[in-house]
Design brief:
This protein is α/β, with parallel strands linked by helices. The protein contains 18 helices and 22 strands. The longest helix is centred in the last third of the chain and has 16 residues.
């Protein structure tokens, strides 16, 4: 039997672990092929590639942002290859599946849960549909139009699975690799598919070490740990951090942490970690206790704020924080205030997204009781909540885009944050300004973003104009444009300077803007200064 895995992702840099994770558990009796593609490739092109393979079975994982594209491909393939079976899996099928199968009759089966153990069993009886109902996780409609629900498949002995990288289908050419060191989550968040996934299952520290060395030997340098709450167990978290130190200078790690559950020993260890080894994502969602309580998220708000303040104070790693618009009892003014609080903490990024009511989650089941309306098709985004109107949610979407354009962009973050901190009305006023220009949903270059910020500040907050000009010069924007036009050549350096960045050399040309001095390398045709200083007033 020829099995074709359609690995459809949202971008080239992403690659699903599903194929190698499942293939690693299978014997060699079947012929496996894979087509790796993404949603930026046309449906017609992907259909042509699939049909050219002439498979007996097509398998694919349905994700929020690929599902629509996937269905467009498979519906066409089913017409061109009527004898080919189609099986889908992934988080899209953690909820009720009968209506889905009836709406998409070209899909022969969907799998609910973890597939490593049971999908190979299903492959063995693929041609005998009467035996499908004996396999956990398999949901299908039989020849007599009866629906069969296989429940939820779960791999309880997670540590016994063969590693995905033992499969030849494991991707070794991406910018990062996802490393699943744990499954399940101790938390109970009603909006998350892992909120009811108990117990938490781990692989041993010895296996983590062995596999990390394997990634390093493959030339992979960036590791994104799939562990819903890395610090759920303080002892293991410390042991893992000690293990990561062995790879300093070789690998870097992206971790998800719960700021409310940072014990003193974990904090002490984080303080001593090598610079740049870790990148932390702190699960916050909201800075309102009533919202967290309604969302059934464990951990007190007070502890979360204390933990987040600690993480953001560390200069040896960057911490990102996230907010979710549309959660029960969360209002738009609350969220704007929370954004200011996170900026005051100096969070490395503020990631804000709209709530999505995912299949299988408690919040989706209780949506009507909670007063939430959501889109019936992927990505199931909230359309209205008890705290936010449709207009509030649209504004939240635009605000998220604004944060990505300025706060989450290294070049503009410092001045953007300073404006937020000094002018309480700045964030909302700038949002209105950009929305009126209809540029928030357009791709904008770093320079175009800077000009929009400069023009806005010039008109509405002129006392801060110099700060924007300094940022413009520091990140190397064109010196001939208006934000840098006041900069003048400096023939002789002041006697007393406070060095802010870089080191002076004899091969520099100097310019000044008010009390700031900029040094540019004479031998390199670059606009970005390599030396920045501030003149110290003579007392």
């Amino acid at each position: 039997m020829k099995i074709l895995w359609l690995d459809l992702n949202s971008s080239y840099s992403h690659s699903s672990l599903a194929l190698p994770a499942i293939h690693a558990q299978c014997d060699e009796q079947h012929e496996w092929r894979v087509i790796r593609t993404n949603i930026n490739i046309s449906v017609a092109t992907i259909v042509h590639q699939v049909v050219a393979e002439r498979p007996d079975l097509i398998c694919a994982t349905a994700w929020l942002f690929t599902h629509e594209h996937l269905l467009a491909v498979l519906s066409r393939v089913s017409v061109l290859l009527p004898g080919c079976k189609i099986a889908l899996g992934g988080p899209e099928f953690l909820g009720e599946n009968e209506s889905y199968l009836r709406q998409h009759p070209f899909v022969d089966m969907v799998f609910r849960g973890e597939g490593e153990e049971n999908l190979p069993k299903w492959l063995d009886v693929l041609d005998s549909t009467t035996e499908w109902n004996a396999i956990e996780g398999v949901c299908y409609i039989d020849e007599e139009d009866l629906y069969h629900d296989g429940g939820l498949a779960r791999v309880m002995d997670f540590a016994s699975l063969k590693a995905p990288e033992t499969s030849p289908f494991f991707c070794r050419d991406r910018a990062f690799v996802q490393f699943e060191t744990a499954r399940g989550c101790f938390n109970t968040c009603a909006f998350c598919v892992s909120g009811a996934d108990k117990p938490v299952r781990f692989i041993s520290l010895e296996e983590v070490r062995e596999r990390l060395y394997g990634y390093y030997e493959m030339g992979i340098t960036s590791i994104r740990l799939l562990d819903r709450t890395f610090n759920g167990q303080s002892k293991r978290a410390i042991q893992m951090l000690e293990l990561f130190e062995e790879f300093n200078g070789k690998l870097n790690f992206h971790l998800e942490v719960h700021p409310a559950m940072l014990g003193d020993e974990v904090k002490a260890k984080l303080r001593t970690m090598p610079h740049g080894l870790l990148h932390l994502e702190a699960g916050i969602q909201s800075l309102r206790q009533e919202v967290l309580t309604e969302s059934r998220r464990l951990g007190s708000l007070e502890a979360s704020l204390e933990g987040l303040r600690f993480l953001c104070s560390l200069d040896n790693m960057e911490t990102h924080a996230d907010l979710i618009a549309g959660l029960p009892r969360y209002t738009y003014p609350m969220m704007v205030e929370d954004i200011h609080t996170l900026a005051a903490f100096d969070a490395g990024e503020i990631q804000m997204e709209l709530l999505k009511l995912l299949p299988g989650t408690r919040m989706r089941r209780e949506a009507s009781q909670l007063g939430i309306l959501y889109a019936p098709y992927p990505p199931y985004e909230v359309l209205q909540s008890d705290g936010m109107s449709a207009a509030d949610l649209l504004r939240s979407r635009l605000l998220s885009r604004l944060l990505d354009m300025y706060y989450n962009t290294g070049g503009w973050q410092e001045v953007f944050r300073a404006l937020m901190m000094s002018e309480n009305s700045f964030l909302e006023a700038f949002l209105d300004y950009l929305a009126a220009k209809e540029v928030l949903e357009q791709p904008l270059s770093l320079e175009r973003r800077g000009m929009l910020l400069y023009e806005f500040v010039k008109e509405y907050y002129p006392s801060h104009l110099k700060e924007v000009s300094l940022a413009w010069i520091k990140i190397g924007m064109p010196l001939g444009k208006e934000p840098a036009q006041r900069m003048k050549a400096l023939l002789e350096l002041p006697d007393q300077l406070e060095v802010l960045e870089g080191i002076q050399t004899n091969e520099m040309r100097y310019y000044y803007l008010d009390e700031y001095v900029f040094g540019f390398d004479r031998g390199v045709q670059r606009q970005k200064p390599v030396f920045i200083a501030k003149q110290i007033p003579v007392s």
